[in-house]
Amino acid sequence: MYHTAGIAFENRSGSAKRAKAIIFGRKEQVGDICKLIENSYSQVTLAETSRELEKSGPDKETFRLAVMTDSFSEKLSIGLLNRVRQKFAPENMICLSGEIEEDNEITLRSAGLIFLGSYGTFFAHAENIIKHTLNNGGNNAMKPEIETARNLEKRLKGARASGRSRRKRLSFLITSAIAETAARSIELLIALAVTVTLFIPVLLIRLITRIPSGQPVFSRRTVCGMAGQPITIRTFSELKGRMADLPLFLELFTGRLALAGTAIREWDTPDPNAEQAYISMVKPGIISLWDIRRTSKIAHEGREAIEWEYIFSKRPAYDLLLLLRALPAMLYSETTSAYDPVFRLLGLDIDNITMAEAVSLIQTDLRDNRQQAIYFVNPDCLNKMAGDREYYDVLKAGDSIFPDGIGLTIAGKLLQSPLKENINGTDMLPYLCRMAAAERHSIYLLGGKPGIADEAASNINREFGVTIAGTADGYFNHETETGRIIDDINRSGASILLVAFGAPLQEKWIHHHRNRLQPALLMGVGGLFDFYSGNVRRAPRWMREIGIEWIYRIMQEPGRMWRRYVIGNPLFLYRVMKWKLLTGSGNH
């Protein structure tokens, strides 16, 4: 049986493993979950409020599982997860919510959860999820057979589950079955169309050109199928990109691959962890969310987190939209995996690293208290640099320059010097704040209109748990009041200074005053505070995935943004091509 915080009773089965679980949520909302978990765990503890969270604590044994729900008295956040981890040290964590805001969802997914999703999805896969929390990853991947209706009803038989909740679960299962049938029919139609119009003509050409010379038509790859089982697939040898993948559409007929699914990954033999085993339950697809984000250089969360995001968003309508997003994303695809450490563009050396590598470098500099000036450059910055020699010199004097925006991704493709990732300040802030919170570094926010920095600071502190040392708006007299601002920053003890004056003013201000500034990290962040204060909404994730965030910005502020993008973007590409003609390459 389950009980309130601080008391946990053994279940009747007397599990030999004596594994313990703790659930955070209101009793009337999580009763079914408690009873479900009680069948596999020897002790289940319930905490309904923040007060109970603070009062309760682990005894000699650590908790094997912690389940966070949106019925808990405190909003689901990375700060709450960290407190639970510090207090209970659970080996596995699950988050359940009917609705999660996009930015918070991204943050939570990167927190190493074993499951994040809706109650319906959890109940549909509860058998395997709970089993895997007990196996600690095990040696066997989760099985793909999910007899959800029978297993769930068996588990809940005799429980005080309302008829309404049973009807909801049954409705969920029937709807899922109908949707799967419709999706499978569409998949087969697309497979047939691609086979007839593309695969067969390309196959005939390659048979004629390659067989006489004894060259192979196909290459073989061993990849992970469902449940992590190895399957052999074929691609056209010595072709690149999507043309090489045309034979994969034949696998849609066999059912070994899906049109949209998790990313195809090479098969290897190491034991899968719990997270990867759960991902393996979903059929790999020719199109995947991971491939789209990686192509557009915004796969910052990492492959596993993005795969989880796909799994818990997956439905026929979502898969259809994923296919539509894949088409424009192909424009940014690269056929090489070789990256130069420096991306040289218009005479500027830009760091060609991933988001994780960038945050790791910053972490090292903060630990060593080594002051670094870090700047971001996008097409608009580089257009301004072309007519501002001082700005160019300031950027050259910076310690690190990170590439920001789809424009630089396109420039890398044009120069045949691909970028690893798009590292913009807005995407970096959650990673920077989580690292700063863990390492006990504080942040000072300088810039924006009056009140904007304060609102952003409040939201950042609440969302990421990082200490805000101070704030100041950017509307001060830079000739007479800079000394006062610098004194306030230094007195605050901040390790990180974020300056949001807009380019090039923020970079020039940092450059001219860095010798007087004590924070170890000095970073120009442009309009970052507007986004995190809620004053300006960021483009939906799907627009960022296909590289049209700039259209959303024009729609928001047409009077201010149209010149920057409608004139500025073509001008930037002209300068890139001119640079290529003059140098012969982007890295010379």
UniProtKB/TrEMBL annotation:
<dbReference type="InterPro" id="IPR004629">
    <property type="entry name" value="WecG_TagA_CpsF"/>
</dbReference>
<feature type="transmembrane region" description="Helical">
    <location>
        <begin position="188"/>
        <end position="208"/>
    </location>
</feature>
<protein>
    <submittedName>
        <fullName>N-acetylmannosaminyltransferase</fullName>
    </submittedName>
</protein>
<keyword id="KW-0472">Membrane</keyword>
<keyword id="KW-0812">Transmembrane</keyword>
<keyword id="KW-0328">Glycosyltransferase</keyword>
<keyword id="KW-1133">Transmembrane helix</keyword>
<dbReference type="Pfam" id="PF03808">
    <property type="entry name" value="Glyco_tran_WecG"/>
</dbReference>
<dbReference type="GO" id="GO:0016758">
    <property type="term" value="F:hexosyltransferase activity"/>
</dbReference>
<keyword id="KW-0808">Transferase</keyword>
